[in-house]
């Protein structure tokens, strides 16, 4: 049996227990262990007589997925424990026992098992590319070589926190307009399906010709009542098909990335965010002593946009042939003049890390300001969109009533 499979078979589980302590008092709690025998053994060593022991059931989706913030917290906790002088294996065990998320606990215990079997910490982390990126691996490897593992873990956590905050701002810029449209469509559909039919039955008793806007609204209502589930299924199918096509077709995904950069208002936010991520990651890896070629490879994967990823790969190839970094970046046509100037100054003065961090700080603030501005501008747009949709339906329903009142 391989080391990996044996680690998986020894996965710890959470158990709930009840029992009596040495004073005869009833006590209860939760404990992680391989099986019931392991839990009873642990509790017996503490002088507790177990009366009830059950495996804890987890709701579907609760704690069964490792999130980005989980990895950040893991790095921060490991840095704190190692800085306090706790050995690596004991630190991993302490962090695993301190989390209530099964997936994260299993992930940490697998790393602990790999380290116990002879792997280095960086090698054990590299075996999980789905959760651990190259930046994390490179920094931990550098920390192991320099004897500064706690400092590198702390740097990983800080860098991930900044990148996660930046991603959250970009998502806010993208999701806010979509949310406005979705709310408008949902409210309109509710009116068409539930409210308009009540007016339609009332209009039938008038015996008069209805105004054109009212007839259009009633026709839309009839279509919505009869076809709402087909429309919903078609929208879901279109969304799934588009997502699958983007995943399977690199050319289509590249075109979508180009389109995102060209969008008004949102495009500049995505562009500045990509530059900030690239600069922050390159500065962090370069400062840790990672070679520039490996640092560029790592920075390429965090940009969040395929156009920038391809451009950084070209930069990497040009630097490998002997070109200066700022010149290679200039030929891509994607980086802002300020970024190019700061990189050039950093290369000339030997302070590339500091200059890249200043670029990242500047664009972090700019992205935040642009997202705040977008949110402020979207608020009146929400009122206009919802007012037009809802108001249009309401006015079209009351037009026959107004006509009837004028006729009387």
From TrEMBL:
One Pfam assignment: T2SSF
UniProt entry tagged with the keyword Cell inner membrane: yes
Keywords, sorted A to Z: Cell inner membrane, Cell membrane, Membrane, Transmembrane, Transmembrane helix, Transport
Entry's transmembrane regions: 173-193, 227-246, 380-399
Biased composition (Polar residues): 1-14
Domain Type II secretion system protein GspF: 74-197, 278-400
PANTHER family registered for this protein in UniProt: GENERAL SECRETION PATHWAY PROTEIN, PROTEIN TRANSPORT PROTEIN HOFC HOMOLOG
Protein family (similarity comment): Belongs to the GSP F family.
Protein name: Type II secretion system protein F
Organism field: Kushneria marisflavi
Lineage of the organism: Bacteria, Pseudomonadati, Pseudomonadota, Gammaproteobacteria, Oceanospirillales
